[in-house]
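Reviewers asked in the last cycle whether our approach scales beyond single polypeptides. To address this, we selected a multi-component target totalling 427 residues and predicted its structure end to end. The input consisted of the following lines:
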Amino acid sequence: MIKTQDIINHIRSLVPGDRKVRIMNVCGSHEHTIAFSGMRSLMPEHIELIPGPGCPVCVCPESDIIHAITLSRRADVILVTYGDMLRVPSKDGSIRAQGRNYKMITSPSEAIRIATANPEKKIVFFSIGFETTTAPTAAILETGVPDNLYILSSHRLTPTIMEVLVKDAEIGIDGFIAPGHVSAIVGSNAWNVFSEIYGIPTVVAGFAADNLMLGIAEILGQLKNGKIRTGNVYAGVVRPEGNIQAQNIMAKFFEVADVNWRGIGYIPESGLELRDEYSARDARKVFGLKEIKEEKIPGCICGKVILGKAYPTDCKLFKRACTPKSPAGPCMVSMEGSCNIWYKTN
Amino acid sequence: MCVGVPMQLVEINYPSGVAEAKGVTRSIGLQLIAEDSLKIGDHVIVHVGFAIEKVDKQRADEIWEALEEVLRMMDEEDSSA
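The resulting structure, written as structure tokens, was:
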């Protein structure tokens, strides 16, 4: 076992003395480990660890939240979704505050159980998240769901948003720590575009502090020797090709779509919607849901925080008008949101 | 939502199964992993009730160690807040 101090010493030996190195993580759990372990304070002065778009709750469009609230107020509907989504604010309030018939679930399987137990109701599963939650939703569709279960898909693609980030010169990313479990599904090869096209080292890491620091060391090592490639310090969990069976099941039911990211805007081919052949299960089509114009939350810079253009502490609302108990913006709601994490550690 | 928890398979009724971790058993979906690659005793990473990947015991233990470390750090923050 490599000792933590040895990794820190190794990182120090690799730091280029003449410039800052900005390393972004794109996973709420990574940011959790970095923030709670105090890892930033252990880094040499030139290393900046930036939280990126690792919180799917934070980027879920306000329009979908309003639709979820509206659907839950119908007498013939029960809305089901993950716990974090219940508290996310919108101009019409949150699902918990303004919704009526809703239930929290921890797994798509529970949506099936609720649908089976309530055959007279229409069950709408507000299904959100990156690839780690898309695959389970696709899995229940693969097995077959009751006729009264509908999917409101707000799934997003991690590699696409990362490519948006590298094209934005304002952000200036020198290296990515790729999310461990998203990588288990999409494969470490999914990140080759960053090393091969953009020359940005991208290293898959797990969630232990030591493992994350190994990832940081590998990024710095690549920058130093100029041999840029996709790295993987989470071997044993992540294969180069990923989980092919999961990828196939996702591709069977979902297709890539141009979608809105809250606080960021429309990004081509960055989300997943149900394929036309499954439109009978698609809540957007069954209930005729149309896009509602997003309203900016006054003072909230969640979009900038997600893109790595600002830190939570740059926000005037942070810890004042925006707290985990009374979140003004989506980044303060979820335990994967940078503002929520920084509230507890700064 | 994105936290994956390693669990050990104690029962397989493909496409579902029962897995155990830290004394807690839970019914899980196995559709995302090929049936012929699974056997009782395997360790899998479970996200929102579905196994997304197989891992060996050593990696499962390491992930649990990391999860418990994060939980411990969160407890410390909560109690000092």
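The radius of gyration of chain A is 20 Å. We regard this as preliminary and will revisit it once experimental data from Aim 1 are available.
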